[in-house]
Amino acid sequence: MTAVETAPAAGRRRGSRAELSDRSRAERRLGLILSAPAVLVMLIVTAYPLVNALYLSLFRYRITAPDDREFVGLANYRTALTDSLFWQDVLTTFLITFVTVAVELVIGFALAMVMHRALVARRTVRTAILLPYGIVTVISAFAWRYAFDLQSGFVNSWFGLGDYAWFAGRWSSLFVIVLSEIWKTTPFVSLLLLAGLAQVPRDLGEAATVDGATAWQRVRRVVIPNMKAAILVAVLFRTLDAWRIFDNVFVMTSGQNQTETLSFLTYRQTITRTAIGLGDAVGVLLFLSVVLIAVVFIRGFRVDLSQVKGEK
After folding, report:
1. Where exactly are the transmembrane stretches of this chain (predicted)?
2. Cα torsion at 226, 232, 237, 241 (round to 10°)?
């Protein structure tokens, strides 16, 4: 009797799973159909410049002499990889990326905690914190440049630094570039970490409090382990973005005083020196380095974007 009664129940459960699975597949298929045109356009827009750059990087080609084009194979890549200037720019790019991402992660986590725990004027607090991220990067770079300028800046007068020329040396110039980058993009990191904080179960925090854990212990043992995916995604996105830094360097120093990055080197070779082949080779190397960073993060740290959205 019991077996007879439970059989239809099991059948209904299997039927509901099948129905749910069919509906899920139908929704996924519909999503692919709706997004296909946009994805196709994006692929065309991004794939053509990449393939064209890869093609031109195999030639000795200057835009000032369009008819004088010579196939040189991988010679442009060999020239870039054996040039000490290229590796100096790699080091500069790495320093900027490492410092900015590390500082932004710490400050962004603190801001995310403030936004998450704000009880009064929560929307106002979040808007104020996220405001710098809404400013165009070039405008932000010009503001920081004028603030630290020897003639028109106010930083020296505020802090009693006299006639200190911030953009006259390598490290002082990099300090301003890094500072401006941190101010501009820390809100983006805090926004990603805020999404991670929303996924931390409150029950765990309350249980830790009952057990006598301090605030720092709750953060270290409860909060951070449960938002590890959000932290890794924030670090990944910011690392890829910082590795391609260009605007701040272009506006503040134009690559002088050994502040040139890989993106600026690509610009200088292609636009300033009109060496299209060599510039595209550097650009392809920059693209490959970005892909390598993404692969290392995703495979090495097992970044799962679904956990950030709260999916199981």
Report:
1. 30-51, 94-115, 127-144, 164-183, 275-298
2. 130
